[in-house]
Amino acid sequence: MTQHTEQDTPVIELRHVDKHFGDLHVLRDINLSVARGEVLVVIGPSGSGKSTMCRTINRLETIDSGEVLIEGVPLPEEGRELAAMRAELGMVFQSFNLFAHKTILENVTLGPIEVLGQDRASAEKTARELLARVGVAEQADKVPAQLSGGQQQRVAIARSLAMRPKAMMFDEPTSALDPEMINEVLDVMVELARGGMTMVVVTHEMGFARRVADRVVFMADGRIVEEGTPDEFFDHPKTDRAREFLDSIKGH
Ligand SMILES: Nc1ncnc2c1ncn2[C@@H]1O[C@H](COP(=O)(O)OP(=O)(O)OP(=O)(O)O)[C@@H](O)[C@H]1O
Ligand SMILES: [Mg+2]
After folding, report:
1. What is the value of pTM for the model shown?
2. Of 14, 23, 48, 223, best ligand 1 pocket probe by most atoms within 8 Å of the beta carbon
3. Closest to 158 measured CA to CA, from 120, 118, 189
4. Mean of pLDDT values over 161-165
């Protein structure tokens, strides 16, 4: 549950963000703010700009105009400061992107040691706690290929958490997984949300969205077309575009 007070600066804020890929106007005047502890679910048709919006939040994509602020501070264009702010946002993608030749434990300790300057012993202690929290403690000494997709994705979450991010972004974290592994990853995300993590989640998992989202944002054609609570959005969509989308995914 989120509580808003006057002095609360949004953890993430996008102001009038526009972006093109060549002639394609992929983000159109995006205005969005995510409060501390809020879980924002982003849904919308393929190609609507969901991934691009996530990527602009930590400048994996540049923007043409507008502003992206993290805790009220504009994202720097480049350089050391950008790297530092990027490290403050965890990002989990569809593909797990673990280092194939490192152990699970090394995957989780690398960032804290190299980027945060933690000593190995404390980084390993934290890593083992996080691996236990996501349910893969016994896998610590294996390499990624020895784990299932669901286990690898949970390691990817633990790796992000080890960096003590201010917020976590998830871009379709379960869409590459076999059906029986989806829930084990969603359960970890539910726990994170309950623990108060600020989260932006792009997902097609409507059950998760209903249960966990504080707010749902619906994107189409590069715009935020609609936003509301899960009940408002799923039960009383305001626009034809959202109604069509919800009809199209029913029964899937
Ligand atoms: N690097 C790129 N260069 C050119 N066009 C791109 C690039 N990345 C994305 N696009 C285009 O921008 C539009 C938005 O893409 P984006 O990946 O953000 O959509 P999405 O909502 O995440 O879709 P999906 O649900 O399929 O993941 C699409 O038309 C896509 O083809
Ligand atoms: Mg996408």
Report:
1. 0.93
2. 48
3. 189
4. 96
